[in-house]
């Protein structure tokens, strides 16, 4: 039985939902397994589908990575590039049972791709998504200790912002064609002793006023914060377009290593949900998906993609 699978994790291929995204004017990649005698059928006015053969792997991988990381150099970029090239080389072998498909968007909407063997087959919905761009500012809190000395409230610093952006832009860029640009990454100092855990009232009265008014979203790093019980170790304030993320993130609900960036993505998810004027906060009960009330990850799904953007 033929099947569609992703080449890279969180790359906008939602195989369980027979759904994938392709950036408008760009392309995405999907692997078709067990492709012997399979014929592809699709709307040729809106999609162009090419097999990635051995001689194309380096160029296609480079274009794919460039579109998602832009000019940014990072270890994450090198790692993803290596993973993708390795997977494409394995698939592009002549006479191999799988095909690497490069799916380019020429139109708009959500055309279907069918892979047919005889009279039976599988289908994939292909959402052609316009690109969305938002600006984000990061503010790192300093305040006074009991003796009046200025101290850092958070272990994170402006030097961490390139990593935040790499992770956010892969989470939302590769999965939903939504990208963020940092317009500010600076320390702020509140000349008061605020204590180790920042209360919600103090956050609104003494910290939120430091937001960047010309940024679409300001994210505050304050160390510890008195998040509400139903929230993932942070908070998004829709009336202010700011969010706060605690240093430790939320280890019980995310995989190891993703507890902090997962909460940041969760709060950014609230922002995107709110930007689309969707009802409610955006929390749901689909376990393992970002914004879930249960276990979460950096994975989006078809429903979440449609809640935060439009095709
Ligand atoms: Zn939430």
Main attributes of the structure:
Immunoglobulin-like; 2 domains; binds zinc ion; 25% helix; five-stranded mixed beta sheet; 6 helices; six-stranded mixed beta sheet; 311 residues; alpha/beta; Collagenase (Catalytic Domain); elongated
Short description:
This protein is 25% helix and 32% strand. It has 311 residues and is of the alpha/beta class. It folds into 2 domains: 3-129, Immunoglobulin-like (Sandwich), CATH 2.60.40; 132-308, Collagenase (Catalytic Domain) (3-Layer(aba) Sandwich), CATH 3.40.390.
How would you characterize this protein structure?
The chain is α/β, with parallel strands linked by helices and 311 residues long. Helix 1 runs antiparallel to helix 2. A hairpin with a 4-residue loop joins strand 16 and strand 17. The mean pLDDT is 95. It folds into two domains: 3-129, Immunoglobulin-like (Sandwich); 132-308, Collagenase (Catalytic Domain) (3-Layer(aba) Sandwich), CATH 3.40.390.10. The chain is built from six helices and 17 strands. The longest helix has 17 residues, at 75-91. Strands 10, 11, 12, 14, 16 and 17 form a six-stranded mixed β-sheet that branches. A five-stranded mixed β-sheet has the order 2-3-9-8-5, with no helix packed on it. The protein has a four-stranded antiparallel β-sheet with strand order 1-4-7-6, with no helix packed on it. 25% of the residues lie in helices and 32% in strands. It is elongated. The structure holds zinc ion (ZN). The site of zinc ion has 6 residues, from helix 5. Zinc ion binds next to helix 5.
